[in-house]
Amino acid sequence: MFCSSVRPGSCADITQARHLGLVESLAGGPFMEILADVGFQGMGAQTGGLVVTPLHRKFKKNAPAWYEERLEQQRKAHSSQRIRVEHGIAHLKNWRALARHLGRRERMSDIVQAVAGLLSHQQTTTLDHGLRA
């Protein structure tokens, strides 16, 4: 799981990823497919297909019936694979320190990193315990 540092103001996900140099890291690193949401459309071409997003709708009006059916099947397949990512994000948001953060913004990055580490450790422990039983 990757959690970037907090930046002031609002920023699109893809802009943050480009600012952090993730495009270059992914393009030059080992092959791994990353399932992203619609906010990262266009990054797949920049990373040689490593970032996979739902398909972009080609027809806005008068689309053939077969196109709509195929688009829906592909979106559903992508969504069913990406549900693990969404559950991971939801687990982060369930932590009280993140859900009701009233402290200083400068400390938010540290809190996110700590919660992500605790959640990762918790899931690893759960998996290890399940394998031993």
Question: Key terms for this structure?
Answer:
2 strands, 6 helices, 133 residues, two-stranded parallel ribbon, 58% helix, mainly alpha, single chain
Describe this structure in words.
This protein has 133 residues and is mainly alpha-helical. The protein has a domain at 1-53. 58% of the residues lie in helices and 3% in strands. The protein is built from 6 helices and 2 strands, in the order ααβαβααα. It has a two-stranded parallel sheet with strand order 1-2. The radius of gyration is 18 Å and the shape is globular.
Topology (elements, then pairings):
Blueprint: H1 13-19, H2 22-28, E1 34-35, H3 43-46, E2 51-52, H4 65-94, H5 96-99, H6 108-132
Parallel strand pairs: 1-2
Quick structural gist:
By secondary structure, the chain is mainly alpha-helical.
Instruction: Report how far the terminal alpha carbons are from each other.
Output: 27 Å
- Would you tell me the structural class of the helices and strands? mainly alpha
Global outline: globular
Return Rg in Å: 18 Å
Unreliable segments of 5+ consecutive residues: none
User: Strand order of the main beta sheet, please?
Assistant: 1-2
Largest sheet: 2 strands, parallel
Give the percentage of residues in beta strands.
Answer: under 5%
Series of secondary-structure elements, N-terminal to C-terminal: HHEHEHHH
Helix content: 55-70%
Per DSSP, the total helix count is 6
Q: Can you give the mean pLDDT?
A: 77
The strand count comes to 2
